[in-house]
Amino acid sequence: MPSPRANRIGLTAYCTRAGDHNDLAMAGALSVGRTLSDRLGIPVATIGEPETALNAAWAAEIAAAKPALSELIDHMEGLFSQQRAPLLALSRCAASLATLPVVMRHRPDTCVVWLDAHGDLNTPSTSPTGYLGGMALAGPAGLWNSGFGDGLPLASIILVGARDLDPAEQALVDANMLKLVPPSGDSPAQLRTALGGRPAYVHLDCDVLEPGIVPTDYRVPGGFTLAELGDLCRVLAEVEIVGIEIAEFENAWAENGLPASPSALLDALEPAIARLG
After folding, report:
1. Which of 36, 146, 190, 249 is most buried, with most CB under 10 Å away?
2. How many folded domains does the chain comprise?
3. pTM higher than the cut 0.70
4. What whole-number distance in Å separates Cα of residue 25 and Cα of residue 18?
């Protein structure tokens, strides 16, 4: 018989391609999902299987990922229709192209707390690299048509820990189109103010942390420690948490390396996870 919490939380691992530079985050998502399953005593549903990364431009990546992302959309719709809170282990941030429009359809009162070293607010016309992950938040915000929907107002976005913004992204911040909470000693207080008591849907890219703490693709100095991430999660736990997605945890520090554990990361996230559902 499922536990009472199993009826409130929909634990899911999206463990296939979504704009990958390498294969490590697909296995990483499966590891995060299974570790959460063991901790919470609830089953984990899986979407897709690890494949060889394409490491291609955005159009090729989105075409390859479309079947799995469409399955993720259907799965998210099912969770909300069952009144279950999503707890997602995602391979890459680009999977948010599918998740966030569903959240907005069901909970338009929600703000998206985007914990990431980057803004991910580029479009195909503004991106310096053509990397799909750098457009992951811009699609749901309606800045470009990803084919997976939109509906996320810029005013409902709180960037937390962003410190590597491209010009088009910085222009949005400078115009006060969305909130930015940079990494600093008073980030928790700034986050509390930015939330203003609103419900939150939480996205974590592991590169929001200081490099060297967990294995992830991008390594941008000046990030949070695990203790600081825990402080932010305690602030998030003061409001309703509609869902949580954890992205970009790579399963090893190098290709063919020994598997890395997500346990320390999940310890830091525990205050937010405990509030979920």
Report:
1. 249
2. 1
3. yes
4. 10
The pLDDT profile of the chain, 277 residues, written as one tens digit per residue, is: 455 666 899 999 999 999 999 999 999 999 999 999 999 999 999 999 999 999 999 999 999 999 999 999 999 999 999 999 999 999 999 999 999 999 999 999 999 999 999 999 999 999 999 999 999 999 999 999 999 999 999 999 999 999 999 999 999 999 999 999 999 999 999 999 999 999 999 999 999 999 999 999 999 999 999 999 999 999 999 999 999 999 999 999 998 899 999 999 999 999 999 999 8
Q: What is the dihedral of CA 192, 196, 200, 205, to 10 degrees?
A: -40
Range of 70's domain?
4-275
Cα–Cα distance for residue pair 149/214, rounded to 1 Å:
32
Strand order in the sheet with 241-247: 45-47, 9-14, 85-90, 241-247, 200-205, 111-115, 157-160, 179-181
